[in-house]
Design goal:
The protein is α/β, with parallel strands linked by helices. The protein folds into two domains: 5-165 and 340-356, Rossmann fold, CATH 3.40.50.2000; 185-336, Rossmann fold (3-Layer(aba) Sandwich), CATH 3.40.50.2000. Helix content is 35%, strand content 16%. It is built from eleven helices and 13 strands. The protein has helices spanning 19-34, 113-129, 138-146, 148-151, 221-234, 248-257, 272-279, 292-296, 308-324, 327-336, 341-356, and strands at 5-9, 39-44, 58-61, 78-81, 96-101, 132-135, 159-161, 185-189, 211-216, 240-244, 260-263, 284-286, 301-302. It has a seven-stranded parallel beta sheet, sandwiched between helices. It has a six-stranded parallel beta sheet with strand order 10-9-8-11-12-13, with helices on both faces. α7 (272-279) crosses α10 (327-336). The radius of gyration is 21 Å and the shape is globular.
């Protein structure tokens, strides 16, 4: 008897630097490794055919017209759409859909009206089409329930939280980035835009000799100007460095050598860099908003608000505690290790089983 055919949406492979790709690729690798009960295909851009090898997986090539008409979807019993903003869902009404929702940040960050309207329409369409919804944090699950009417979520539709995994970062021997601070530095990673709230960080350099390194996949010029203005006002402009498109080796080097990792975000669906920094036993200092307390847990320290005085007190106290208790680094690494792709893939396979009656 032939195995039930399922398809995993790997269209995010088109940009290996994107957050969605960092989610889909390791999940796909682990699903290929663990799956023994389904005929698995991965839906990929043409250039990514073969990206996961040839054992235990086939490939379906992504085409732009599939946004509107997806004939191959009729051959699958289940389609896993890996983002709430995915254009690609089955045309076939008989194909079950699992939808992964990463965040509803557009509800929290006050985007322009056009962005809000576009994202809301896409999320509503995908939630309504889904037969089973999976969220990457319990905060996002609760967010869907809070905004059920707005999002078109029908009470009773299956939904659960599956903790995502985080890939283990391995330093490249003898690697050094183009910019390597020569004094203790604070590090923060993410798209340089208003949601990340980086402009509150430069005042933390007042009264010490630290540097601040901000790195992201892209930077909005207007927001960069706001950060630089905040640094100039605090008198620390010469100790703030903003980088874009750093390599994986560079990123790992900054985690490994920083004094502490900071993430004062206003909205996060998960907060991947938090766990990555913890892999190196680094103290992390976070905002208390959206999913960050869930991801950081008791291992992280939290800014009570974004006033310079309160943030400076939190940072100083947290660093002092960390330096006084060497075991804290071990606790941070242990917390990071709980974010397992093996467990995440096993949980997704259980979701597939539920929908397909396996």
């Amino acid at each position: 008897m032939s195995l039930p055919a399922i398809c995993l949406d790997c269209e995010p492979f088109r940009d290996r630097h994107s957050g969605f790709s960092h989610f889909v690729f390791p999940l796909a690798e682990e699903l290929v490794r663990q799956n023994h009960r389904y005929h698995l295909s991965c839906y990929v851009p043409p250039a990514e055919v073969g990206a996961l090898g040839t054992e235990g997986v086939e490939y379906l090539t992504q085409r732009s017209f599939h946004k509107y008409f997806n004939p191959p979807s009729y051959r699958f019993r289940l389609w896993h759409s890996t983002s709430q903003l995915s254009w690609y869902v089955p045309t076939s009404p008989f194909t079950k859909v699992v939808l992964t929702v990463h965040d509803l940040n557009f509800l929290h960050e006050n985007p322009d009206e056009r962005t809000y309207t576009r994202q809301l329409a896409m999320v509503r369409r995908n939630i309504r089409r889904a037969d089973y919804i999976v969220t990457i944090s319990d905060f996002v699950r609760q967010d869907i329930l809070r905004h059920a009417d707005l999002l078109g979520y029908q009470p009773g539709k299956p939904m659960r939280y599956v903790r995502r995994g985080v890939e283990a970062l391995v330093p490249v021997p003898n690697h050094q980035p183009a910019y390597a601070p020569r004094r203790p530095f604070l590090f923060s990673l993410g798209a340089v835009n208003a949601k990340k709230n980086f402009r509150v960080l430069p005042p933390l350099l007042v009264g010490n000799d630290y540097e601040l390194v901000l790195a992201g996949g892209f930077a909005e010029p207007d927001y960069v100007a706001r950060i630089r203005a905040a640094a100039a006002e605090a008198g620390v402009a010469d100790r703030v460095t903003i980088l874009t498109r750093i390599s994986e080796a560079d990123k790992t080097w900054y985690y490994q050598h920083c004094l502490a990792y900071l993430q004062p975000s206003l909205a996060e669906g998960f907060g991947l860099p938090v766990v990555e920094a913890m892999q190196f036993g680094k103290p992390v200092f976070l905002s208390q908003l959206t999913s960050l307390p869930e991801v950081g847990g008791a291992a992280a320290r939290y800014f009570p608000d974004f006033t310079p005085a309160a943030m400076a007190r939190t940072l100083a106290a947290g660093l002092a505690e960390y330096q006084a208790h060497p075991a804290r680094a071990t606790e941070l690494r242990a917390h990071a290790a709980t974010f397992s792709w093996a467990q995440s893939a096993a949980d997704y396979l259980a979701v597939y089983d539920t929908l397909l009656g396996s």
